[in-house]
Amino acid sequence: MALFKTEKKAPRGPAGKWDVVVSEEMCKACGFCLHICPTDVFGWRKVTNRLGWFPIYTAHEEHCVGCMLCYQICPDFCIDVAPRAGGMN
Fold first, then answer.
1. What is the CATH number of the domain that holds 71?
2. Cys-Cys link to 8, which of 40, 79, 80, 87 (CB 3.0-4.6 A)?
3. CA distance 79 to 3
């Protein structure tokens, strides 16, 4: 079974109830989060950060289902995923 999948699924369950924050200035653009995310939350910036990389950003936060795969795979600890205030009720 492949870890990274090219096809993305439509979000189901608790989608849209999560805050996804990417520290773009620390991102080294490995793309692990983009490729492991099952619901297409992330995208590439078109301008470089201060490190000279084209970082990942949260393009579709409303698709996040809170699986935490991006948080777990990021080698530079650039991603934080947390329940949105009042969103888990």
1. 3.30.70.20
2. 40
3. 19
37: in domain: yes
Q: Give residues with Cβ within 8 angstroms of 4, minimum separation 6.
A: 35, 36
Q: Phi then psi for 33, rounded to 5 degrees?
A: -65, -45
Note the pTM of the prediction, 2 decimals. 0.83
Instruction: Pull the structure tokens for residue 13.
Output: 């369950």
Which residue segment(s) compose the domain that 50 sits in?
18-83
Q: Cα–Cα distances in Å, from 50 out to 35, 40, 74?
A: 23, 25, 19
Summarize pLDDT for 12-22 with one digit per residue, the tens: 777 889 999 99
For 21-72, the pLDDT digits (tens) are 999 999 999 999 999 999 999 999 999 999 999 999 999 999 999 999 999 9
User: To 5 degrees, how large is the angle CA 18–CA 22–CA 75?
Assistant: 110
